């Protein structure tokens, strides 16, 4: 009887070694996974052809965590998240069900002549180059964590446009709003959501004055349409530091701050990302 109870206890301990922030997740949101277990290594997860490494959590003993970003275009259904690690020289596998559900983002329907907004060749060349440069940054995952405090919003004003609004042109989904827009008059101080290293500081066609901060472990925060940028590429920045001033640079109709997040290269809801990231230290 004692032997059965011991085996049952070991099974329960192993079962609950893996935690997941939610079994249901909206498209373009982020999932936090955590394993608290001694003497394990090489912790990884697989989700729908994505392979993601866990990082050792510097804020908790014997703890490893991973951030799983869900694509905006991820098919809505139930998936199996498989986590593996090495324990006592053997590879151990754990699984959790994860259901991707509709984020119920609003839609903007726009009907225009097909040739009305045909871009010039020079613009296409520039935007492709800028996109390629940015994606090279976003897909670079630093093994070092660069923050030790909770993430914060870049300013405290009204949100004028939420993340995820669909842009439907002539009946077809062409794009979506890739960030959260905050009201900001020209010259409003914009602060860093957390500590990190500046990886982009550049005037770009669509996003105008742009600063992108690498926070480590594949986490990037982005600040668009700035009229002034106070930091250069390679410079360290502290949480709450004034990284620049708001403006109406780039492809915009008026001054505001466009705030966005990339995790492991994928674009995600920045406000949800902040909520999830702040679980790392809890």
UniProtKB/TrEMBL annotation:
Gene3D superfamilies, alphabetized: Glucose Permease (Domain IIA)
GO molecular function, one term: metalloendopeptidase activity
Pfam families: Peptidase_M23
Entries under SUPFAM superfamilies matching the protein: Duplicated hybrid motif
Domain M23ase beta-sheet core, chain residue ranges per copy: 176-270
The protein's name: Peptidoglycan DD-metalloendopeptidase family protein
């Amino acid at each position: 009887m004692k032997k059965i109870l011991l085996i049952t206890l070991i099974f329960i301990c192993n079962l609950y070694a893996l935690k997941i922030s939610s079994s249901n997740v909206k498209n373009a949101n982020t999932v936090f996974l955590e394993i608290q277990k001694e003497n394990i290594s090489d912790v990884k997860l697989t989700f729908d052809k994505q392979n993601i490494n866990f990082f050792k959590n510097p804020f908790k003993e014997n703890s490893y965590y991973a951030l799983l970003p869900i694509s905006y275009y991820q098919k809505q259904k139930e998936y199996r998240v498989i986590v593996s690690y090495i324990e006592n020289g053997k590879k151990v596998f754990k699984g959790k069900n994860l259901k991707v559900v509709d984020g119920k983002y609003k839609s903007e329907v726009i009907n225009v002549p097909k040739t009305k907004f045909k871009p010039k060749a020079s613009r296409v060349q520039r935007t492709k180059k800028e996109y390629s440069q940015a994606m090279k940054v976003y897909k670079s995952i630093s093994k070092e964590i660069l923050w030790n405090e909770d993430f914060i919003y870049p300013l405290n004003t009204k949100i004028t446009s939420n993340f995820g609004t669909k842009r439907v042109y002539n009946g077809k989904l062409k794009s979506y709003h890739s960030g959260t827009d905050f009201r900001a008059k020209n010259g409003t101080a914009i602060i860093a959501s957390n500590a990190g290293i500046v990886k982009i500081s550049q005037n770009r066609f669509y996003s105008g004055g742009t600063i992108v901060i690498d926070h480590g472990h594949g986490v990037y925060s982005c600040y668009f349409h700035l009229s002034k940028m106070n930091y250069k590429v390679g410079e360290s920045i502290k949480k709450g530091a004034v990284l620049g001033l708001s403006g109406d640079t780039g492809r915009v109709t008026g001054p505001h701050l466009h705030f966005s997040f990339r995790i492991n290269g994928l674009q995600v809801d920045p406000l949800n990302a902040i909520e999830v990231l702040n679980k790392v230290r809890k």
